[in-house]
Structures are given as structure tokens and as C-alpha cells.
Amino acid sequence: MKKTYKMTDLCCANCAAEIERDVNKIEGVSACTVNFISQKMNVEADDGADYAKVYKKIEKAVKRVEPDCDLVLL
Predict the structure, then answer these.
(1) Residues of the chain scoring pLDDT < 70
(2) What is the DSSP letter of 46?
């Protein structure tokens, strides 16, 4: 399952890299890329994963690094 999110209020490339690293460590995520220039995050989740639970962990990881950043599904 692939999802693309617009990331609002992502302030710097360092934060984007940290978010990408943290999301890639989440169980159920097989791949994640964050592009600071386009302000987008692409997430690929394992087929058997409960995406609602995975999304909550993704959102928590994003808010830990960038509290004002919101994810908007494209």
C-alpha cells in the first residue's frame, strides 16, 4: 500500500531527513521518503499491516520532530 502526503509547515531539510529516518524504523513501514523541496512524504506500508495503527505512529514521529507539521493525504 502506497500513500503520499503533503507536509505543511515542514521547516528544514534536516527535519525532513530526521522524519524520514524515524518513519522508516516504524514496524509495518517498508519504505518512506521525504522530499523537503516538494514538501511531500511517500510511505509504502506492508500489505498485512493495519494502516490505521501505522499512520498513528507516523503522525507521532512527525509531530515529535516538527510539532507544527500536518500531513494531508494526496
Answers:
(1) none
(2) -
Report yes or no: 57 and 18 within 8 Å, Cβ to Cβ: no
Taken in order 35, 36, 38, 41, the sign of the CA dihedral is positive
Return the pLDDT at 49: 87
Q: How many domains does the chain have?
A: 1
Domain that holds residue 69: 2-73
User: What is the CA 29 to chain-centroid distance, rounded?
Assistant: 10
| Residue given cell 525532513 in the structure block | 16
0.90 exceeded by the pTM? yes
Q: What is the CATH number of the domain that holds 12?
A: 3.30.70.100
